């Protein structure tokens, strides 16, 4: 199963990596590459946060600290040395991971630091890291990176950011997949349900939590290192703002924390809505829509979008295709706005209560699980 999953990730990566080459043939505007880069960026952050919090239940508000360490690692090295920025990316991940492991070595030894205390402590870590970097690296003036040299085979700047963002997102999601389907994942879920019972059953809780935290913070630093080049200019106020960890939490909650695909789904949805309503005239509408969507998800889909989407995949895919075709042929408009409208229709379908769905739609449209069961039974015969 893991080899098939690896092959699937490689195929998806190769297909998407070739997407910039199709711009002339498909005729899509260049901003689509930037839009997709930011989708990859938020997917990496949300998925990396979920490796610890979603799986183990240790709720963190300090993910922005590890992302910020990654940003400042790349920014400081690029502006002060001749080292190619590509070599700074793994270093950004390693330094963020070392910080995370240092914090974890202390707090995971203290059983009383769980729940809201752990969340507040991680938030305090972000403030401490920001203060240290402000005094030692930033100096209050920020760091101006500008355009950095990069290999020609990655294309121009937007294509390079697209491909590297895709690579980091794929690595992060694949790592989350491997953890989810491993003994480590089963141990983390046991810790999530009841840590004392997990310890009684022989789960090495301290080691598993440290492994999850190390992976989580490494990918956050890796994504931050690349994003420093996208930002071009970094400063403490812009990097260590609370919107980063809050968005990451929102994305994971929206998509579903108990599955490796949940944060990816949430990241795509939230980023799409933010981009579609990025005009300052619609900023209030964007905030209201995002808050209202979260409230609706909590009320109607407390398990997250993934579980409901898995049950209603066929009608959701059919509706999405229908909306896309209608918009493309009859309405037009910006591609990202069309994508946001399609997502709204799909989410509306997913929010229909189960009893009404079974009565109105379920009797006519088979579920994805039933289709898979029929395929398996036919293959066995």
Mean pLDDT: 86
Assembly state here? Answer: single chain
Low-confidence stretches: none
Instruction: Give, in order, the helices and strands.
Output: HHHHHHEHHHHEHHHHHHHHH
Number of domains: 2
Number of separate strands: 2
Strand order of the largest sheet: 1-2
Question: How would you describe the shape?
Answer: globular
Our estimate of the beta-strand percent is under 5%
Fraction of helical residues? over 70%
Q: Main beta sheet: strand number and arrangement?
A: 2 strands, antiparallel
Structural commentary:
The chain is mainly alpha-helical. It has 2 domains: 241 residues, no CATH class; 109 residues, no CATH class. The protein is built from 19 helices and 2 strands. A two-stranded antiparallel sheet has the order 1-2. Helix 3 packs antiparallel against helix 10. The two termini are 22 Å apart. The relative contact order is 0.13. The mean pLDDT is 86.
Quick synopsis:
The protein is built from 19 helices and two strands.
Structural descriptors:
single chain, 381 residues, mainly alpha, two-stranded antiparallel sheet, 2 strands, 1% strand
Topology:
Layout: H1 2-17, H2 23-26, H3 31-56, H4 63-80, H5 85-107, H6 116-138, E1 143-144, H7 157-180, H8 183-193, H9 195-200, H10 205-231, E2 233-234, H11 236-239, H12 243-255, H13 262-276, H14 283-300, H15 305-311, H16 313-331, H17 335-350, H18 354-362, H19 368-380
Antiparallel strand pairs: 1-2
Helix pairs in contact: 1-7, 3-7, 3-8, 3-10, 3-12, 3-13, 4-5, 4-6, 4-10, 5-10, 7-10, 8-10, 12-13, 13-17, 16-17
